[in-house]
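The following block was generated as part of the benchmark described in Methods. Ligand: nicotinamide-adenine-dinucleotide.
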Amino acid sequence: MPTDTILSNATANFNRAAEMLSGEFDRDLLDKIAQPKEKIEITVGPQFDDGTIHTLKVFVVRHSDALGPAKGGIRMTPDVTLDDVAGLAMEMTWKCALMSLPFGGGKSGIVADPHDLDEYNKETLIRSYTRAAMRHIGPMIYVPAPDMGTNERDMGYVKDTIAYSAGQAGTQGCYVTGKPVILGGIPGRREATGRGVVETVAEACKALDLSLTGASAVVQGFGNVGGVAAAALRQRGAKVIAVSDLHGAIHNPAGLDVPALLEHHAKTSRLEGFPNGEAMDGKEMLELPCDILVAAAAASQITAENAPRVKAKLLAEGANSPTTPKADEILAENNVFVIPDILCNAGGVFVSYLEYTQETQQEQWTEEEVRARLAKRMCQKFAEVASTAEARKLSMREAAMYQAVKTVANALIARGKLP
Ligand code: NAD
């Protein structure tokens, strides 16, 4: 297997957990848990508005349904592979289990560059994905959500395509989360992952005896997760000294005005040109001296190569799989406290669960209720993982994986012999 990929990182983390659990469960059961339940590759050929047909692949993976229907976002990037989707689906299995949600893990991939698509053609492609993948989507099968390259509007198109195909005004039950509020979405879903990241950062600061007020923070990625996390960090008194996106980074040691930067980025789609900061290289930014580093961009950004130069006291994994297993070892040797992805960025799927129950029960939640429940669950889970880590002398990642895999194993045993 190639190294430093999403799947190899996820597999290495699982193998470590399986080792820890080998005295408690049969190896056969642990081997079964590692394998994806279903991996689907579909070819779609939507016709765009200029009349051209674009033939491309879409993927759906259901890694596990031991705890319930598979849950996980739709990633649209030009280089996403079936293996990436399998690795991400596996991570979703652990994340849902760790957060005590009645969901298994799943994920979708669409091999396309959203930046190459105007709104009309992106809608066409999302509808094409939905039509092709529809028999794998359902409230008791797999419930998608946004991920890199897809957003709230796209989830509205997913819901509409399914409702339209059934000749109905809506869907019975929840087929997709992260939808616009007007179509049954929940207030605060878009911000949930970034806010959840900062809840765990605040808890980690307490554990490290580090004041969040005045702490210096660096944020990689300025999209859905990174943008919201940067704003929430500043709101809670941290000094955000640098942020980056795919095109580069912007740095101001005195602290960036994040709301103004968000406005500038929304207008120009670039960080560069922001008046109150200096442009810098995105890779070098990861090595800036700071208290908190939030990795909220892509996979395998902290590797064996750059990990020795990471100077942050705390690394918050807003992205999925941003740290390779080798880098993890180096960070541990250097006493960098890592909040692992399956805990750190689980706020999104937790609020998706609230959306799922809201839609199933035809309820209406307020944003205050959503934020309060999000904060409570993130703090509760941070405390549980920290206590397992302390009791068993494990890192936070090992403790989170230990709890998650154990939960899935117990669910499989509770289901009996057939599944
Ligand atoms: P997004 O597409 O909204 O934003 C991604 C951001 O990262 C963009 O600013 C992009 O320019 C930047 N980026 C990409 N590659 C980069 C690189 N090499 N260096 C610096 N910046 C880079 O995506 P998102 O929804 O914010 O997701 C970011 C990460 O968080 C992904 O790993 C995703 O799987 C994970 N995640 C997202 C959610 C969610 O609710 N959106 C939930 C859990 C995990």
